[in-house]
Every structure is written in C-alpha cells, then in structure tokens.
Specification:
Blueprint lengths: L1 H7 L4 H8 L1 H4 L5 H8 L3 H12 L2 H7 L12 H11 L12 H8 L3 H18 L20 H46 L1 E6 L2 E6 L8 E5 L7 E13 L1 H4 L4 E4 L6 E2 L4 E13 L5 H25 L2 H15 L16 H10 L7 H39 L9 H22 L3 H19 L2 E3 L2 H6 L5 E4 L11 E7 L2 E3 L10 H13 L6 E3 L9 E3 L2 H12 L5 H6 L7 E3 L7 E7 L5 E8 H4 L3 E5 L5 E3 L2 H17 L2 E11 L10 H4 L3 E10 L6 H10 L3 E5 L4 H11 L9 E4 H8 L8 H7 L3 E5 L3 H13 L9 E5 L5 H6 L2 E5 L5 H6 L2 E3 L4 H43 L6 H20 L22 H29 L15 H20 L17 H18 L6 H6 L5 H9 L8 H6 L8 H16 L4 H14 L13 H6 L15
Parallel strand pairs: 9-21, 9-24, 17-20, 21-23, 22-23, 24-25, 25-26
Antiparallel strand pairs: 1-2, 1-3, 3-7, 4-5, 4-6, 4-7, 8-26, 10-11, 10-20, 12-13, 14-15, 15-16, 16-19, 17-18, 19-20
Pfam family, one: ATP_Ca_trans_C
Catalytic activity: Ca(2+)(in) + ATP + H2O = Ca(2+)(out) + ADP + phosphate + H(+)
Subcellular location: Cell membrane; Membrane
Length: about 1150
C-alpha cells in the first residue's frame, strides 16, 4: 500500500514545487511529509509522530491549530490551507459525452439490421440497369420500372435511415439527461453530507468539501470519515477499515497505540476527536482514486463491455448504481466498483452478492425476449413465403429462365422482401418499451423529490410499488424522535411527572446530574430554541437529549459539570453499541479512586445492580426478589404506557482496588441504581393514518425495534400496527431466535415460515435478527405470492438489513452515513408517510408501464398480422416499412411519454400489491389487447379487401410490388393510425374501469401529445393539391398540377386516382420539403404556359388509361436518370422545356 501511494506522488509534479514553499509561509509541515505520515500504521505511525513532532499536540502546533479550540473561522486562513494542502474533493469521473452515448445506442441489433436494409435499399434505388432487357425480365418487374417508384425507393431507404437516427438520438438524449439527473442527485447528496468540526471552540456542522487540513473533527459512532487524520483523544473507538484493507475485523484506535484514521472508513463504535492531516486527492482514498484514474481506464473499458450486454433496461440501472458508487467520493469513498486495488476489486466481486434484478425488470426482460422470438419467427416466415411465391410464379408458372442482366431487377425484389421482413420484425419488437420505462422512472424520481424521497437507485422506485411488507424502525420513523422524560423512579418513589427539585434529597439529585451530564456524548446538547415559543433544539443522540432535558427540568444545568470534567479528563469510556445496549464512563475521584457511571436498558442494567438508593440517598441492598418486584410495579406499567425505560447507576472503586479495565463484565457489575426513568417518544400524528393506508393497500407493516416488548407493543397499538382481536405475534429477539433455530443453532426456513406471517412486533432485536427476518421473508415461498420487502433504518447496525431488502429506506436527518450508503431511497424528512408516497409512485410506475404495454402490444399484434397476411396474400404489405416506422417510432415514443407521465392517484392504494410472481400482462389487459386487435383487424381487412367498393376508388391490391402507395392504401394507413390514437385514450385504464376519460385533463402532457400526433398525421397525409395556400404561395395556381403528373407517370395498371395520391403523401415527412419543391417547379415553369396542356393531358389520361404521357421537368432530371428503365408507355421520355 505504501509503495502504491508513493508512486502516486508523481502525479502531482506542480504541487511538489509548492510543497517546499509553505515552510517559510507559516505551516511547519509540508504536504509530502503529511502524505508519507498517513501511509504508516500502528506503532510505526506513533513512533514517526513522536520522532518528528513530539506528540499529536506538536503536530497541531505545526499546523497552527488548537486541539480544543480548533481553527479560527478565518476565511483567508482556510483558503490558504486549501491552496497548500488541497481541497477535500475528489473530481468525479468524466461523464460520457453525447457522441459516446449515440455510439452506444447504435449498437442495438435491430437498428443494425435496419441500417443494413436501408443502405442496401438506398444503393439499389440509385442503380439503373440497362433498359432493353425489360421485356426479357418479364412483367414481374414492371413495377420496378416506374419513375415514381424510383423516387419512392430512394425515399424509403432514406426514411428508414432517418427513423434510425431519430431512435438513436432519442435514446442518447434520454441517457444523457438521466446521467445529468444523477450528477444532480449526487451533488445534492454531497451537499447534504456534513461533518462536525470545532472552530473557534464552537461545534459546527460543515459540508464535507469544506474540511481543511488542521481542522479538529469530532468522530462518533456511525460516521464515515471524510478525510485522513490523527486521533487526539478517543473513547473506545473501533473502526471498520474493510473498504481500504479488505479486512473485516474492526480495528481499535487510541491516541497511544494506533492513532491513524483514514478517509472512507466507518466508525463502528465509540467517539473521539482527530486533527485532519490529508484531504481530497492527497488522502489515502484519494491516492488510490488517482491511481485508478491512470491505471484503471482499461480495466473499466472491459467492465463496460461486459455490462453493455445486459440490455437497455439494465444499463440504465448499472449506470445509476455505478455513478452512485462514486458519489463524488466523499459519500462513499471506496464502496464503488473502482474501489481499492485490483485484487481487492476481485475479492469484492466474489463476496458481495449483486442485488437481484428488480421485479419489473425481470418481468420486462422475459417479455421482451418472448416478443422478440415471436417477431423473428413471423418475419422469417414472411420473407420465406414472399421469396417462394415470387420464384415459383416467375420461374415455374411462367417458365422464365434467370438471365444475368436481369439479376439487379430480381435482387431489388429480394431486397424489398427482406425489408418487408425486417419491417415485420421492427413492428414486433416494442422498442418504445425501454423508453417508456426510463421516462416513467425519471419522471417519478423527479416528482418523488418533492415528496421527500431522494431516490438513489432508479429501480427502487418501481420495486416499491410491489412491496408486500414493510419492516419499520420505531424511533424516529413511527415516532417523532423528540424524546422527553415523563416518569421517573427516584428514592423509592414512582413519580408520574417530573418531580420538583425540593422533593429530592440533594445527594440523589447531585449524583443524578453528574451521572447524566458526564455519561453521555459531549456532542449531545440542548440548545435554546431558534424561534421564540419553539421547543429547545435537541442536538445529538435523542435518548441522551431526553436525559439532559430531565436535568434542566430539575432546575440544574449540565454544562458546568462538563466544564469541570472536560472530555479529555474522562478515564475510560465504554460507548453504547447494539451488543451492550448500555454506556459507561469512568472518572477519577479526588481521593485517587474511580467512579463509574452507567446508563442503559433497564432490564439489562438492573440485573447488574446489587444496591439501590433509598429516599435519603443511602444505598440499600437490591436482591433479585426486589428486582422482580420493581419490574412488576415500575417498569411494566411504564412500558405499558409506551415509555422506554432507562436505568441510571454508578459504582465506586477505591484507589487500591483498580480493576482490569478491559474486563468489561467485571467492571460494569455490582452497581448501585440511582434512578429508572421512563422516556416517551410520541407517535407522529400522521403515522396511524399512513399505516391504515398501507394495510388497505395490502402491505403488512412490522415494527422491528431495540426497545422492550411492552413499550413496543404499546406504540404498535397506538400506530395501528396491531389491532385488538387480531391473531398476531409480538416477540423478543431471544424468543424469535429460539423459534427459528434448530438444535444446532442453525436457522431453518420452515421454522421461520411458521413465525413471520403472524409476526407484527419484534422487540429487543439485534441487527442480526433484523437481517434474518428480512432475508427469511424474502426467501420464503409460503403464501400465494413471494414477498417484496421494504426496510427502514437509521443506524449503522441497520446496514445489512437495508442492503438485503428489496428497497432500503434510510433516514435523511437521523440516519448515519453507513445507513444512507446501504439504502436505495433516503427519506429527507424521516417520516413514515413519505414511504406511503413512495408506494404510490412505485405503483404508478408499474401501472404506467402496463398502460404502455397494453397500447404497444395492440399496435404490434395488429401491425404484424396486417403486414404478414398482406404480404402473403397480396405480395405487398398494406402498411409500408416507413409507415410502420412512423407508427412505431413517433406514436410509441410519444405514447410512452403521454402514458408514463400520468400522475398517481389515491386509488392506487386501494388494490393489493402485484407481488413477484404475477404476470406483467393481467387478464383484463389481455382481454383489452385481444378485443382491440380483433376490432382493428376486422376494420383493416374489410378496408383492404372491399374498401375500394365503399369509397368508389381503385384497388391498391396486387399493384406491382414497388409501386407507390395508392389512395386505397393511404385510407388504410390513416384508419390504422387513428385507431391507435384513440386506443391511446383507452390504454389509460388497465383495471377494467368504465370511464377512460376520467382525469384526462389532469395530465396536460397527455392531451398535448394526442392532439399533436393527430395534427402531424393529418398534415402528413393531405395531398398537396388540396392545400390551396401552397398554390397561392407559388403565384401560379396550376403549376403543381404538372408536378402531380410528373410524379404519376407512366404505367398502365395504375389509374388516375392513384396518381392523384402520388404527391407528398408517399411518406409523412415529405410534406415538409413540398413547399421548396414547388417553388423550384414554379421557377422552372415560369415561362411555359403548360397549365392548359396539363389539363388536356389529364382528360386524355382519363379517356385512355393505357396512353400515358410522360412529363419530366428539369428539376427531376436526376430522378429520371436513376430510373431503372424508362416506362414502356414512353420510351423516349419526352421532356418539356
């Protein structure tokens, strides 16, 4: 590790020149010195500090800082430190550029197939075979000879390419905006992450990026260290350094053994103060990151290649998770994929099980594969049938030989068949789906921010909609986390409210004040209210705040006691942790002895008490019988009122009998009980209603708490988690373990399955119990469906359960960094009602995607069947490739936007969750899809086979394969699009509701998109001759008639009505180029009075269909040249000047 770090110094050649200067500039340490110091560990590091600086105090003096007062809050000084020692910021990796995202989007297989087809089609449309062979090649190719077709052929290839470009740009833009959103989210998380430092003797919360070398930082249980430092003073400090070293054992830190604290490591126990010695890229984590910046690039490229194959849905998620991994490093220094050295990375990959795909993702992937396979089969069959039909008709029925010069003509046919096949495939694959999912998730995540849900992983948002169980913490989530002491047992008397100080013996009062003031974290304080009339501000641990508040209620003050015995005078501190469930502090007494103060859960601490203070403040013996008595008369009644009971005790050691301080059980025993207090944490007023909503929505809420069973039960009843008369279980951790483990002490899933369905409250639970319960519920297969579990947590110990859960909620205010890091969603207001909002949004995402699927699959089923049967019966798809792409791309993209932005309603909470196993397409949806498909197919086939009779137009069937669209087929196309448009409104409801218009005006995006699509469709298919305004713009009303004919030139089978249609309506986007073409035409014909001639030709065409005049204008000479062979009707290609 040392060598690695040393080598990285070469990355900073410029600062190196700067490093030497500061010696004179004021500070007694160079950056290089501090960096080499932080590479040492344990005794080696201590020796170096002593040799170079004398002690940590000497280091502080050199850095011009005070171990107790900290830095002066002087802007110039702080700025100077930043310039010399760097900022506490590690530059995040460069985001992908838009072009890189475009390139990634182009890798899609379907798009590649389309690109190839389009390029081949484009190439062939410009290839003109020699004209004389047309007779020999047979009339099969007659359609290919039409000049209008040459035009259409060229445009079809271009149009396919254009739609590919559209898809790619939309996808790339989407990814880009998502990346941007995550950067924003990241910076928000960064700004929210603050750390406690001492400046000017005041405790301040400063953003992590504002830390500088020389700052004195307070470290406490649950912190994630934001910079490297040297410990000045510590209490029972244990650090998890696994993110740097890979060793899972906690490392004990102390000022006299191993004082080195490293950024990115977690404080698992204890507290202390450190002087910051390295920040940002110069900290140990920063050095590794800088190395990764140089050496990790190739590694990462390999990584990315592997990840890309997981499909669009997953790539969005991995991207989210990857970016979260590096939450500008200050949040989560080395938990990201790039953390630690390379072998470290391999180890991590093996150890950490990746979270399974989210519920919806799994279902969508499965569905997409099924649809893809079906589409492939259909398209293959279509191509085979078309090719066989063509070959049999040309070479068997008509007995023609294959001539070499005819090859290009035939190849054009085969390419056309291939394009039809690809069209069927394109229509079958719902490529709007990833888009719908992303839009829906991104929209929801943005809106959820307003509902106090900071979503860290996109998929969590949708998983939450499927949640069937929530395991919630009690303190701070269901309750206000504003603790107050409301009952107490002091001097043999049970007080139902805070006693007057005069009632208590001074000795008891004095002991109580000292026990509370000294034996609590010195960072915990009660500050005066910010506004008049508001409640005093509680800073730090809430239970300790309640006890300090009790001191203030007894008209005493804790501050003078703390000033008398400052934190560095404390002899030994056993900090609170989830195993001890108590905290003890040892101080030296004036006579050379020691006094230990202890506080903790009453039932645990009372077992260690052998004496109790009586009303005079004298100790009397406290036997097990007395304890049982006290439990019955004091503790249980308090717990039944929903109070949390804390016992406060002390013990004196004489100078002669100093114990072995490491033998904690021996030290914290034989105590004298001073008092038992009952702390109330009132239930948040909005929680009972929120829990009722969850229960109505089919979600079981379970409370998992470290509190005792009676308190937990009382609070659960107040919240409505348990109701009288229900069949439920409330268990303590021990009983829970006894029930789920076999004789060998192993957990058995069958035993667990008997317990969890009825379990509502798990009290006195350890972090392992919480994890066991969550894992057990997720793995269980009992019941109709598998469970999807959400967990809330705020403590470091909740990390494993939060990670294991399908969705982990961390508390934004009370949560520790470790909990936030393990979570998927951060509740910025620590409130249970925000979880209910998350459920609503999650269900809304799921429903939005189901709505879109219902819409998309109807389009797909109809289009595939129409294309397939059309191609097989009439040798041409009634819906052209480009028309299909218009429907598929524009309709679906817009539809996904319209349906994905439907706002959630309360009615979403009235149904049961879908769960893991329920299929994505419900019976109602299937009924809707098939019903609409049958209706649409009936209409389209009616129009296809007998439509010409209804409208009195000429049939578009059996036109030569390459001929441009007829009026007949345009009617079919328009009908098809209009049916989809109205089906979009039907798709708004998927649970069989009657009124599909309900709440439609609540979503302006939806209305705009439906009307917009309608307008574009109308404009795209209006024949230009009908747009009078365009004629007027040309100042020559008849000019475009000529263009009309020129488009509709010579072919016997195609009649006037179809010719009318050849204008701008071949493809939807040609309308836009139309005006320009007309202006050119107008200028070309300025001097020719050809309008009369055109009209004359029109009438002659009507009387003699076979005698068609070919008008070729100079503007279209190129197109004429591109024509495979001139039309049979007019070999010369008469041209008008």
């Amino acid at each position: 590790m040392g060598d690695v770090a040393n080598s990285s110094i070469e990355f900073h050649p410029k600062p190196q020149q700067q490093w030497e200067a500061p010696h004179a500039g004021g500070f007694g340490c160079t950056l290089a010195e501090l960096r080499s110091l932080m590479e040492l560990r344990g005794a080696e590091a201590l020796q170096k500090v002593q040799e170079t600086y004398g002690d940590v105090g000497g280091l502080c003096r050199r850095l011009k800082t005070s171990p107790t007062e900290g830095l002066a809050d002087n802007t110039n000084d702080l700025e100077k430190r930043r310039q010399i020692y760097g900022q506490n910021f590690i530059p995040p990796k460069q985001p992908k550029t838009f072009l890189q995202l475009v390139w990634e989007a182009l890798q899609d297989v379907t798009l590649i197939i389309l690109e190839v087809a389009a390029i081949v089609s484009l190439g062939l449309s410009f290839y003109a075979p020699p004209g004389e062979e047309s007779e020999a090649c047979g009339n099969v190719s007659a359609g290919a000879e039409d000049e209008g077709e040459a035009e259409a052929g060229w445009i079809e290839g271009a149009a396919i390419l254009l739609s590919v470009i559209c898809v790619v740009l939309v996808t790339a833009f989407n990814d880009w905006s998502k990346e941007k959103q995550f950067r924003g989210l990241q910076s928000r998380i960064e700004q929210e992450q603050k750390f406690t430092v001492i400046r000017n003797g005041q405790l301040l919360q400063v953003p992590v990026a504002a830390l500088v070398v020389g700052d004195i930082a307070q470290v406490k249980y649950g912190d994630l260290l934001p910079a490297d430092g040297v410990l000045i003073q510590g209490n029972d400090l244990k650090i998890d350094e696994s993110s740097l070293t890979g060793e899972s054992d906690h490392v004990r830190k102390s000022a006299d053994k191993d004082p080195m604290l490293l950024s990115g490591t977690h404080v698992m126990e204890g507290s202390g103060r450190m002087v910051v010695t390295a920040v940002g890229v110069n900290s140990q984590t920063g050095i590794i990151f800088t190395l990764l910046g140089a050496g990790g690039e190739e590694e990462e490229k390999k990584d990315k290649k592997g990840k890309q194959q997981d499909g669009a849905m997953e790539s969005s998620q991995t991207k989210a998770k990857k970016q979260d991994g590096a939450v500008a490093m200050e949040m989560q220094p080395l938990k990201s994929a790039e953390g630690g050295e390379m072998e470290e990375r391999e180890k991590k990959k093996a150890n950490v099980p990746k979270k399974e795909k989210s519920v919806l993702q799994g279902k969508l992937t499965k569905l997409a594969v099924q649809i893809g396979k079906a589409g492939l089969v259909m398209s293959a069959i279509t191509v085979i049938i078309l090719v066989l039909y063509f070959v049999i008709e040309a070479f068997v029925v008509e007995g023609r030989a294959w001539l070499a010069e005819c090859t290009p003509v035939y190849v054009q046919y085969f390419v056309k068949f291939f394009i039809i096949g690809v069209t069927v495939l394109v229509v079958a694959v719902p490529e709007g789906l990833p888009l719908a999912v992303t839009i829906s998730l991104a929209y929801s995540v943005k809106k959820m921010m307003r509902d106090n849900n900071l979503v860290r992983h996109l998929d969590a948002c949708e998983t939450m909609g499927n949640a069937t169980a929530i395991c919630s913490d009690k303190t701070g989530t269901l309750t206000t986390n504003r603790m107050t002491v409301v009952q107490s047992y002091l001097g043999d008397t049970h007080y139902k409210e805070v006693p007057a100080p005069s009632v208590l013996t001074p000795k008891i009062l004095d002991l109580l004040v000292h026990a509370i003031s000294i034996n609590s974290a010195y960072t915990t304080k009660i500050l005066p209210p910010e506004k008049e009339g508001a409640l005093p501000r509680q800073v730090g641990n809430k239970t300790e705040c309640a006890l300090l508040g009790f001191v203030l209620d007894l008209k005493r003050d804790f501050q003078p006691v703390r000033e008398q015995i400052p934190e560095d005078k404390l002899y030994k501190v056993y900090t609170f942790n989830s195993v001890r469930k108590s905290m003890s502090t040892v101080i030296c007494t004036p006579d050379g002895g020691f006094r230990l103060f202890s506080k903790g859960a009453s039932e645990i601490l009372l077992k260690k008490c052998t004496n109790i203070l009586n009303s005079n403040g004298e100790p009397r013996s406290f036997r097990p019988r007395d304890r049982d008595d006290m439990v019955k008369k004091v503790i249980e009644p308090m717990a039944c009122d929903g109070l949390r009971t804390i016992c406060i005790a002390y013990r004196d050691f004489s100078a002669a009998q100093e114990p072995d301080w490491d033998d904690e059980n021996e030290v914290v025993g034989d105590l004298t009980c001073i008092a038992v207090v009952g702390i109330e944490d009132p239930v948040r007023p909005e929680v009972p209603e929120a829990i009722r909503k969850c229960q109505r929505a089919g979600i079981t809420v379970r409370m998992v708490t470290g509190d005792n069973i009676n308190t937990a039960r009382a609070i659960a009843a107040k919240c409505g988690i348990i109701q009288p008369g229900e069949d439920f279980l409330c268990l303590e951790g021990k009983e829970f373990n006894r029930r789920i483990r076999n004789e060998k002490g192993e957990i058995e899933q069958e035993r667990l399955d008997k317990v969890w369905p009825k379990l509502r409250v798990l009290a006195r639970s350890s972090p392992t119990d919480k994890h066991t319960l969550v894992k057990g519920i997720i793995d269980s297969n009992t019941g109709e469906q598998r469970q999807v579990v959400a967990v809330t947590g705020d403590g470091t110990n909740d990390g494993p359960a939060l990670k294991k859960a399908d969705v982990g909620f961390a508390m934004g205010i009370a949560g520790t960094d470790v909990a936030k890091e393990a979570s998927d969603i951060i509740l910025t207001d620590d409130n249970f009602t925000s979880i209910v909002k998350a459920v609503m949004w999650g269900r809304n995402v799921y429903d939005s995607i189901s709505k879109f699927l219902q819409f998309q699959l109807t389009v797909n089923v109809v289009a595939v069947i129409v294309a397939f049967t059309g191609a097989c019966i009439t040798q041409d798809s009634p819906l052209k490739a480009v028309q299909m792409l218009w429907v598929n791309l524009i309709m679906d993209t817009f539809a996904s936007l319209a349906l994905a932005t439907e706002p959630p309603t309360e009615s979403l909470l009235l149904r049961k969750p879908y769960g893991r196993d329920k299929p994505l397409i419900s019976r109602t949806m299937m009924k809707n899809i098939l019903g609409h498909a049958v209706y649409q197919l009936t209409i389209i086939f009616t129009l296809l086979f007998v439509g010409e009779l209804f409208f009195d137009i000429d049939s578009g069937r059996n036109a030569p394969l390459h001929s441009p669209p007829s009026e007949h087929y345009t009617i079919i196309f328009n009908t098809f699009v209009m049916m989809q448009l109205f089906n979009e409104i039907n798709a708004r409801k998927i649970h069989g509701e009657r009124n599909v218009f309900h709440g439609i005006f609540g979503n302006p995006i939806f209305c705009t998109i439906v009307l917009g699509t309608f307008a574009i469709q109308v404009i795209a298919t209006i024949p230009t001759s009908q747009l009078k305004c365009l004629k007027e713009a040309g100042h020559g009303p008849g000019k475009d008639e000529v263009t009309d004919e020129e488009l509709a030139e010579g072919e016997e089978e195609i009649d006037h009505a179809e010719r009318e249609l050849r204008r701008g309506q071949i493809l939807w986007f040609r309308g836009l180029n139309r005006i320009q073409t007309q202006m050119e035409v107008v200028s070309t014909f300025k001097r020719s009075g050809s309008f009369q001639g055109a009209v004359r030709r029109r009438s002659s065409v009507l009387s003699q269909l076979h005698d068609v005049t070919n008008l070729s204008t100079p503007t279209h000479v190129i197109l004429s040249a591109a024509n495979p062979t001139s039309a049979a009707g007019n070999p010369g290609g008469e041209s008008i000047p």
